[in-house]
Amino acid sequence: MRSLLATLLGAALTLAAGSALADPAPIRATSPDGSVAVEVSLDGDGRVAYAVSRRGKAVLAPSHLGFLFTDAPKLDRHLAFAGEERRDFDESWEQPWGEWRTIRNHYRELKVRLRETTALARTFTVAFRIYDDGVGLRYEVPDQTNLHGANIAEELTEFAFAQDGKAWWKPAFLWNREEYLYEETALSALGTADTPVTIRLADGTHVALHEAALVDYSGMAVARSTGTTLRAVLTPGAGRAKVIKSGSWATPWRTLILADDAGGLYMSHLMLNLNEPNRLGDVSWFKPGKFVGVWWNMIKGDWTWARGPKHGATSANVRRYIDFAAANHIPNVLVEGWNIGWDGDWFGNGNAMDFARPTEDFDADALAAYAKAKGVRLIGHNETGGSASHYEAQFDKAFKFAADHGEMVVKTGYVTDAGQIERVDADGTASREWHEGQWMANHYLKVVQAAAKYHVAIDSHEPIKGTGLHRTWPNWVAREGSRGMEYNSWAGKNPPDHEAKLFYTRMLEGPMDFTPGVLSLTGQNGSAILSTEAKQLALYVVLYSPVVMAADTPENYARHMPAFQFIRDVPTDWEESRVLNGEVGHSVTIARKQRGGEDWFLGAIGDETARTTSFKLDFLTPGKRYVAEIYRDAPDADYRTEKRHAMVIEKKVVTGAEAMSLPIAPGGGLAIRFKAAR
486 an active-site residue? Predict the structure, then answer.
């Protein structure tokens, strides 16, 4: 009798589950102002999908979710709704440094719990945080009998765009990591791309697809599957599984920023808001500021990192840079090639690097004392050559050395091909990892955490992508992660539209150490940089970093002192920022207010075509008068000719009730300081 009852009950449950799967009611939630909506649905196979709309128009059609595992059945069918949670959240928080001092975090959260209707009965939650300017979603998986951790082969996350459009993206999984020029194609022609991917849909809606809070997980790229549907592709690891988790776990947030125009993408705080609050507490020991350094001459090939007759990091050279920094009120001096390990072939093999042992021609103690007496700090440099485990073994001595020598910031490097990071486990097993795989995601955070113990900030080069973790760990102050100024020294230079693409793509990750300010406009062997002199000034406002380099040499700045005045004046920490106009790949005009001051600074850049930028000055304080110190391209300036240096420097008194229209030359730019009149 019990057996018959059990059979009947099981059949009833199966029928009930089948009925629920056949036509379950979708679950819907909107952003606080109702403009952005998310709908979660189940189809007849029990496959879960989510859709996103904005102002009643579809942005994402139903897009499937799930996982493939290396050692268990995939998780994407035979699902049923098992509950939901909702809440509203609204707060404001303050950044210790950044493009904005105060950030509002206002969202509506929806959590949808799903359970398999099969014998495995595995459960997971899809969490959505819905903002007025976008959506974050992630998986949250509890520890359970049939899913005790996971060996993830791939995510089955889709982004099924409801219409075609234009996409700006750079390729993923190629040898040169993230240092590729941006492609500009139809969305329906996208290949396999790093995120952020920036899209302008056919109806004009602008979208940035990225991720936030990448912790203990593999970085996400995207690949087009069919039509305008993209799917997540996780970065590989050294083993079969791309991600290994245990106990309860969650993925990073998959993020969609939505805006009417290109500038609206940059103005969003969604990615930062999806990260955890500051875990370090008071970080007032870190002071944003500019730096000069022993670097550009090495990039040009005039000096070397290795010891020898052309060694750059000598005591004599560094003293000269300290003197120059002190004379021009620049608080920091970067030194590369100061330590043992650079001799020979270090590319991809940095096991000779010693991060607490200077070369014999670099007197670290005397130089630290000399810099301190001049009111200057040295910036350290730890190049690993991709030998990440070798670096981890030296964390304490490396960051103690930095702290003992007054180095507030250390620039790290991982120069090796993608997929060639050297990992050595405790048992001596060696393997090769990707820069954006799970193991390296953990490594980069270990660096930041180890440095924080010594009050040292990190500027990562050859880094993992930025996903807003500088909110949680505010000593992670900058990173490279794209083609910076160094490419302008070599053959295959960055084209004139490069920075106007970076602003709406790479800069959505957070601060970038682009190293602008090469006023000589010459690279290796005297080759011409594809820029005007005014554009080099504009980049200090357009491309944000709290630690930003004046990359040219003291000798070259001595030849361009009128323009160098703007570099001396421009701050690196801001009260607020406003994008005034712009279009992806063509132009940017942005104004930023100095933190703790009344002055505003404006930067505008273009592409290879001459243009005029027009903007209102209503960001200025009403009723105040300002002296506008303008650095602009001369009428005959052109990046293609010797007139690339032609610039007009002028002053005029303005108020916030006025507007400006100013020309930008081919390959050009514009920089203005609005100095509050006394």
Answer: yes
